[in-house]
Specification:
alpha/beta; seven-stranded mixed sheet; binds zinc ion; 30% helix
């Protein structure tokens, strides 16, 4: 049972893991896009040291872009086999990949226009894929994986378990003559969100586990809720616009549901709520379709014919013209728009219109990478560049961390508790974070190892001395960007 990772090894983005099993069968687990700009995104253009046509199957753990976003490219490069996933993952993957293709093509056109003016059009890389490629990839989806039910994929027994991260997210128990392996995918935060908690995994010989937040504890959900409510109340008193940058999948639905609860209970006044994200509106359909997957209060509201994602004052904004018109609306209102790190999307024009006004509030509910526009604002910048203009930051900025959809250290250790005595392999984390997690594993008598980038490892073999692959720099700095829900 050998593993070679072409993404999410010593970083948090671009998940793509090649498993080679007895008899030489090859199964790819996830096929995600690298996000975070510059060098990271350049990795999307790299070729693979294997022929995609030789793969026996692809399995997707969930629909975040950093887990599915290179699938159309894999198909472009010759893969024609089946792509297995849960039904909700297939529904969300369509929304995510079509949006990604649109951004790819728009980004390419923009870069080309700029490069032409500088006489450098030959330097511009073509888009990774377009809408047609996405449709070819979607045609390969086999949404037949159901939680707790064993399917046979390329001769391998595959049992998905509920991962509790986003709608449809699964971890995978993979069984063959070599042994029993668990691939965690991304695991959920048991405190927050719309998803049921992950189900305890069965014993396994090896676990490949994500470690995004393996060195920290999230704030308790009641505290997060109180923090969010207080930020909203204070913002309503300031009488300006309340901007909430939010990713389209999971975070937008969680925020809408929370706003509805706070308004229905009278804890927050019923001011207009604009959902300015056609992608979030589309993704919400999947939450209706697969409502039985969600926490009881949301599931029951859906069964009763209600809309748990619609505060009574909700306006869903679809066109760009309507989006511009929100800026002419007088008085306090909540505007939810993407993207979550403010690096693009409709949130940018709302920020340009309102960030310089002292009455505005910016409520941040997602992780902000230090280099992103959101990261600059969180770090206290006086002015920021938005759409080519310098804009003063005079708005009240509230940062609320507890909405994370990722497991924290306690969640990860709880997940491992029922897995027996497996060899634990760490992926989807920054090196300093994984370094901090290794002693926690040793303290529980578990052998832990960091999965190296692109280098094949024997999952049931001896691993590395101290858990670190030889040659991994001791001071390896964070490299990637965690993009939580547009990812
Ligand atoms: Zn994810």
């Amino acid at each position: 049972m050998r593993l070679q990772s072409f993404g999410a090894a010593c970083t948090v983005t671009g998940s793509m893991h090649l498993l080679t099993l007895d008899g030489g069968r090859r199964v790819l687990i996830d096929c995600g896009l690298f996000q975070g700009g510059g060098d990271m995104e350049a990795r999307n253009h790299q070729t693979y040291p294997f022929d995609p046509a030789d793969l026996d199957a692809v399995i997707l753990t969930h629909a975040h872009l950093d887990h599915v976003g290179r699938l159309p490219l894999l198909v472009n490069r010759g893969y024609r086999g089946p792509v297995y996933c849960t039904p909700p993952t297939a529904a969300l993957a369509e929304t995510v990949l079509l949006d990604s293709a649109r951004l790819q093509v728009e980004g390419y056109r923009q870069a080309l226009r700029r490069a032409r003016r500088q006489g450098r059009e030959d330097d511009v890389l073509p888009p990774l894929y377009d809408e047609e490629d996405v449709h070819r990839a979607l045609a390969l989806l086999r949404p037949v994986l159901e939680f707790g039910q064993t399917a046979t994929v390329a001769g391998l027994r595959v049992t998905p378990g509920r991962a509790g991260h986003i709608l449809g997210s699964a971890y995978l128990l993979l069984e063959c003559n070599d042994g029993r392996l668990i691939m965690s995918g991304d695991l959920g935060n048991r405190e927050s969100g719309l998803q049921l908690d992950f189900t305890p995994p069965p014993p396994a010989d090896a676990v490949v586990i994500e470690t995004t937040y393996a060195n920290r504890s999230h704030r308790a959900w009641p505290e997060t809720l109180a923090e969010f409510r207080d930020a909203l109340r204070q913002s309503v008193r300031a009488n300006g616009k309340i901007l909430i940058p939010s990713f389209a999948i999971e975070r937008s639905q969680t925020i809408l549901h929370t706003l509805k609860q706070l308004m229905d209970s009278g804890e927050v006044p019923r001011i207009p709520v604009f959902l300015d994200s056609p992608m979030a509106a589309r993704a919400t359909h999947a939450y209706f379709e697969f409502g039985d997957e969600l926490i009881p209060e949301v599931r029951d509201a859906l069964r009763a014919g209600g809309d748990p994602f619609a505060p009574s004052t909700l306006h869903v904004v679809l066109t760009g013209d309507e989006s511009q018109r929100i800026n002419r609306y007088d008085g306090p209102a909540i505007i939810l728009a993407g993207n979550g790190m403010m690096t693009g999307g409709r949130i940018q024009h709302h920020l340009r219109h309102h960030l310089w006004k002292p009455g505005t509030s910016l409520i941040i509910v997602s992780y902000q990478s230090p280099l992103s526009l959101g990261g600059q604002i969180v770090a206290g910048a006086d002015t920021v560049q938005i759409m080519g203009e310098d804009i003063a930051v005079r708005a009240q900025v509230h940062t609320i961390g507890g909405f994370s959809a990722h497991a924290d250290q306690d969640d990860l250790l709880a997940f491992l508790e029922t897995a027996g005595n497996p060899h634990v392999w760490l992926v989807h984390g920054e090196v300093p974070v994984m370094d901090a997690f290794l002693p926690e594993l040793s303290a529980r008598g578990l052998k832990g190892d960091i999965v190296p980038d692109r280098q094949e490892v024997d999952l049931l073999g001896g691993g590395f001395s101290g858990g670190r692959p030889p040659g991994l720099a001791l001071d390896a700095a964070p490299t990637g960007v965690k993009v939580e829900a547009g990812e």
